[in-house]
């Protein structure tokens, strides 16, 4: 005795297949919205009007900035032609490039040549999103890529 495929079997197959596709799409959309970190600026047009002036002022500082992680410590250095610089760090967020879930706010301490802060970082690509203020009042903003082995 062989079973025949009826219209009801075909209907259930289509409903199940499209149901899985729709469920996966909804799950991906919900996760994308939940992990979106938000807006960078409230009004991009106004921000663009000030961008060139801010960039020129930042470049005029002549700072070389670098960051690396070593044994659970994030080391951040600022230097100009005269040597190490100690700006006022206004904000720093150390996190993954793709998600805000692992974001940390490092508590930097200046040791005379570099800023140091304890962090928890697994292997991979991390970003340090930094805002600092120079002695002359110039605001310095930069995203520094930190590769952790």
Quick overview:
By secondary structure, this protein is α+β, with helices and mostly antiparallel strands.
Topology summary:
Blueprint lengths: L6 H29 L8 H17 L3 E7 L2 E8 L2 E2 L3 E9 L12 E2 L4 E4 L5 E10 L5 E10 L1
Antiparallel strand pairs: 1-2, 2-3, 2-6, 4-7, 5-6, 7-8
Helix content: 25-40%
Low-confidence stretches: none
| Percent of sequence in beta strands | 25-35%
What's the CATH first level of the domain at 62-148? Mainly Beta
Indicate the radius of gyration in whole angstroms. 25 Å
* CATH architecture identity of the domain at 62-148: Sandwich
Oligomeric composition of the shown chains: single chain
CATH topology of the domain at 62-148: Immunoglobulin-like
Q: Total number of helical segments?
A: 2
Span of the ends, CA to CA: 63 Å
Largest sheet: 5 strands, antiparallel
The secondary-structure element order is HHEEEEEEEE
Mean pLDDT: 92
The backbone outline, from C-alpha atoms, is elongated
Class based on secondary structure composition and strand pairing: alpha+beta
Please provide the count of β strands.
Answer: 8
């Amino acid at each position: 005795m062989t079973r025949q495929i009826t219209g009801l079997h075909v209907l259930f197959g289509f409903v199940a297949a499209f149901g899985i596709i729709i469920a996966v799409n909804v799950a991906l959309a919900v996760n994308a919205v939940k992990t979106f970190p938000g807006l960078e600026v409230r009004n991009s047009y106004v921000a663009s009007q000030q961008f060139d002036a801010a960039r020129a002022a930042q470049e005029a500082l002549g700072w070389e900035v670098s960051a690396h992680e070593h044994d659970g410590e994030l080391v951040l250095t600022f230097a100009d032609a005269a040597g190490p610089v100690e700006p006022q760090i206004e904000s720093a967020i150390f996190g993954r490039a793709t998600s805000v879930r692992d974001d940390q706010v490092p508590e930097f301490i200046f040791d005379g040549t570099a800023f140091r802060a304890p962090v928890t970082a697994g292997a991979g690509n991390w970003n340090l999103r930094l805002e600092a203020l120079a002695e002359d009042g110039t605001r310095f903003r930069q995203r520094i890529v930190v590769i952790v082995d």
